[in-house]
Amino acid sequence: MPGGTSSTPQYEALYNGLEPPPFKMPFIDSPDVVTSNTLRLVGETPDARKRLLFTSLTRHIHEFVTENKLTVQEWRDAVAFLNRTGNMSTPDRPEMELVLDIFGVEALVDAVNSPPGDNATESTLLGPFYTHNTQDVSHGDSIASEGKGEYMYVEGRVLDTEGKPISNALIDTWETDDTGHYDLQYAAEVPDCRGRLFTDNEGKFNFRAIVPVAYPVLADGPVGDLLLAMNRHNMRPAHLHLIVDALGYEKVMTQFYPSGDKWLDSDSVFAVKKSLIVDLETVNDSERAKALGFKNPDKGFKLLKRDIVLRRK
Question: Where in the sequence numbering do the catalytic residues fall?
Answer without folding.
Answer: 182, 215, 236, 239, 241
